[in-house]
Amino acid sequence: MQLSDRQRLLYLYMREGWRRFSRRLALGRISAMRFSGGTPDRLIVAPTDLHPADLFAGEEIVGGRFPLAGRILECEGESPFALELPSEEFAVRLHSFGWLRHMRLVDPEKAALTARFIVDDWLQSHGRYIGGLAWRPDVAAQRIIAWLSHSPVVLKDADYPFYRRFLKSLAFQVRYLRHVADTTRDGEPRLRVRIALAMASIAMPASPSRMRKAARHLDEELDRQILPDGGHCSRNPRAALDVLLDLLPLRQTYVNLGHDMPAQLIPSIDRIYPALRFFRHQGGELALFNGATYTLAHELMSALRYDETGGAPFKALPSSNYDRLAVKETVVLMDTGVPRSVDLSATAAAGALSLEMSSGKNRFIVNSGRPRFAGEALRQLSRTTAAHSVATLNDTSSARISTSRFIGPIVVGGISKVDVSRAERQSGADSVTATHDGYLKRFGLLYERDILVAATGSEIRGRERFYKPSDPDGAIEKGTAVVRFHIHPTIQLYRVSANETRLIAVDGEAWALTCVDVPVEEEEDVFFADPSGVRASRQLTLTMPLARVAEIQWSLARQR
């Protein structure tokens, strides 16, 4: 490891240590004060929850079974908080109380009794002492939003003592969140904390100065995290949707109560919509880049139905660094950027220059995506370059991801620069050429990818190239690159010849991947971002022995 790398890691360790020390200092000060403060006498409003609710999940919870995070917990009459939970992700979902939304679809009496029993047990078991996963700032923020939004379910026919305990805990959690907001990890967790505090400032009794302060802090975070092109600063397409589903109810609550709106709230919402349309395949799914997992069609539509911005998707997101080649029914999305900061790279993937391709309602080529409920090992595997539809050199990812439990799985090296050029041909074809330096430091090579979508939309041509920056046409002594095309699990593969394989959708639409420079090989694969869980799939690979083949060309052509 070079000295500069050691210095970089030392800086990252010191910065994370300072963040943790600052949070503990804040917690110590708060604990000494015991979160002193008054208890509100009422709630002013219950904000709307736009996340889709599931009747089956609600009935299961009423029946004593919790279906969360891909697992089912049998409670058998006990509170789930008295039992050993199946996974950390299950615990996050349980303590966040987002599952309360399902209760609004079941019998109101049963829903209220069940919700009140579980909330009351949480107040007894976790509400009195700060610590553990339940008090992680992002979890507490989601819980505050859920309790406010679903207070009509929880408080239906509640007796006065429970009503007071519920409001007292809400006020307690809000005061806690105010003190730890600045030390919350950057990105979506910190923004959600600011959204929760803004929502609490208008849904609960608060002074005008408190409302203005919450709005000001939210403005600062929105201005910083929602980029000029509408993407989220994490570069995760799914993050923008999750944020939007919280911002829309917040906007409506401000309007309904007649309060002055945070200055950045409406502009941020208006910017996010075009970015979502950019990442949306025509079948309704969002692209799988940088930590994105599956998005159910009705989940996306619950947000898009409020879209008043209109217009066709952009050709590029210059701040988020993505490009979109769309001709007629054919769409190619390409990642042409790097993490915007170390802090924001905890879920970023080593997928620079990776692409996804769809035609009509069919996704043909995808990235493997992030598993929503799998363990940490699979989540980290999904971030590797090999889990993306792009070239991998010497079985090495283009970005180095930390394995330190202290600083977390942040990007600590590798790719630092992507050069992009875009060309729209007079013929109507659309193309993008991009180069990254992720392999320069370790192997002395740059990687270039050129993608062109023909004017008819029925052909895509690609070129993959590795070269030395000091001698672009010089020979490469050693190394092997593998270009991967991850195939969506619904697509069937049919091998025509050593150099051609057909991709056939359920509705019969077919494309052929052809490469005359090297064979087109079919291999086993895994698709992480499936609603049913991690799923077996297939991939097509083009292997480049660089001493002999440093550049290849391939094509995808629609079959008649």
Automatic annotation (TrEMBL):
InterPro entries to which the protein is assigned, alphabetical: Chondroitin_lyas, Hepar_II_III_C
Subcellular location: Cell envelope
Ranges where the Heparinase II/III-like C-terminal domain occurs: 310-555
Protein name: Heparinase II/III family protein
